[in-house]
Amino acid sequence: MSKLRATDISISFGGLKALDSVGIDVEAGEIRGIIGPNGAGKTTLLNVICGIDPPDTGTVWLDGESINGLKTSQIADRGIGRTFQTTKLFKGMTVLENVMTGLHGKMRANPLAAAFSFRSVLREEAGAARRAREVLEFVRMLEFADEEATSLSFGQQRLVEIARALVSEPEGLLLDEPAVGLSLTRVTEVDELLRRIRLERGVTILMIEHVIRLVMGVCDRITVLNGGRKIADGTADEVMADAEVAEAYLGAELDA
Questions:
Q1: For 88-112, how does the pLDDT look when each residue is reduced to its tens digit (9 = 90+)?
Q2: Are the CB atoms for 162 and 131 separated by under 8 Å?
């Protein structure tokens, strides 16, 4: 399990301050939610943590060590997986092949060996396929392993993306709206999956989500952003009782 911490994170784009001295402290094994209106800086915060957008000021810590300045691939190698708000599955590839791409950074075969199909390469590919099938079974998508990934429903594609993030056995997982656009039944399935990821795989989860029912039900604590600032941080009950949160974002959506 990984402990994630970000302190005094500020970043601007074209003169617009996307994050203003934001801090977050995610304990190992925690499921932490990030909520807020559109443009609050939620995705930017995840991008800073995983190395896509370097902060102007502030520090990101992973298990007590600064990861500022590291490439996204280096941060991934340290055990941080990531999914995105929009699906990024590869067209023309099966579900199994898409999940296997999550292991490309951990495969040792060089291009020359691959060109000649050396036995070590074949063994490595077979091992990657086994791991991909195992994680597809974990997210209950194994029956679709040989289907073209982009032919699946939107909800199924979201599960494939989570499987791809899990196949490298991360200790921390950053999820950007895993339940967006899903039916109530699918949202319940995501809730159950997130609990199993934490319980059975020991993964720390930091997720952005607009489905309030999911956030309030599954998250240990919730961080609320508005206009690039952190305006609240606490349990679901504490956040729901915060007047600034109600005014900025939740309001009538508390029961959504």
A1: 899 999 999 999 999 875 655 544 4
A2: no
pTM of the model: 0.88
φ/ψ of residue 110, rounded to 5: -90, 165
If DSSP states are collapsed to H, E and C, what string results for the chain? CCCEEEEEEEEEECCEEEEEEEEEEECCCCEEEEECCCCCCHHHHHHHHCCCCCCCEEEEEECCEECCCCCHHHHHHCCEEECCCCCCCCCCCEHHHHHHHHHHHHCCCCHHHHHCCCHHHHHHHHHHHHHHHHHHHHCCCHHHCCCEHHHCCHHHHHHHHHHHHHCCCCCEEEEECCCCCCCHHHHHHHHHHHHHHHHHHCCEEEEECCCHHHHHHHCCEEEEEECCEEEEEECHHHHHCCHHHHHHCCHHHHHC
Round to whole Å and give the CA distance between 250 and 244: 9
Pairing of strands 229-234, 221-226: antiparallel
What would the mean pLDDT of 163-175 be, rounded to a whole number?
95
By the 8 A CB rule, do 53 and 44 touch?
yes
What does the alpha-carbon distance between residue 108 and residue 246 come to, in Å, rounded to a whole number?
Answer: 51
> What's the confidence (pLDDT) of residue 183?
86
Q: How far is it, in rounded angstroms, from Cα 56 to Cα 126?
A: 43
Tokens of 23: 């801090």
Are 66 and 5 in contact, with CB atoms under 8 Å apart? no
Q: What are phi and psi of 179, to 5 degrees?
A: -110, 10
Q: pLDDT tens, 43-77?
A: 999 999 999 999 999 999 999 999 999 999 999 99
